[in-house]
Amino acid sequence: MSAMRVMKGTRDIKAVRVLALVTLAGTGLALAGCGSGEKDGPEVAWAGRVCSHVGDGAQNLKLPASQGKKPEEVKEGALQFLDALSGELSRLGKGIKKEGKPPVSGGEATYLRVLKTLGNTRGAVADASETLRRAKVEDTASLQKALAKAGKAMADFNAYEGPAKDFKSNPELSPAFEKADSCKKIEGVGADAAAARDH
């Protein structure tokens, strides 16, 4: 379900929490664990380090509160969250660049594609933030309208499932992401996800 559809069905200022949850789910930032998979070979170790970068941002992002808040305060909380998310996406991109291209056939092409998608995603978050920042919010109705517009600005982001899943599009990397310990706790990425698909 897209953020736009969710927000259209939300009738109070809690809509901002929907926006926050959608963005967190897209990056996997709230789901990753730790571990490196060093014992399984260079590609598994590399995948583990990438997943660890994904997990490092979880503690830096907090869902904005909306209960009991004035619409203007909810808007400000959403802006702070989006700005923090943009910063975490930037940090994630730097982490991936630090690890370099994966040690598999076709790794460089996959690596460059993932970085491009990550950059585009950060751009979508920035667009949503700017759209919300410009919106005039005076009451609940105007807040809902502003959040809906922000959701529309993030249309491309809503389909984004994170760099770990994008790296798995390379068939030589997919097993590595399923084996690496720090990837196993990212929803839809690790071995548990692969087992679920087989049933």
From TrEMBL:
PROSITE patterns in the record: PROKAR_LIPOPROTEIN
Domain of life: Bacteria
Official protein name in the record: Lipoprotein
Origin species: Streptomyces daliensis
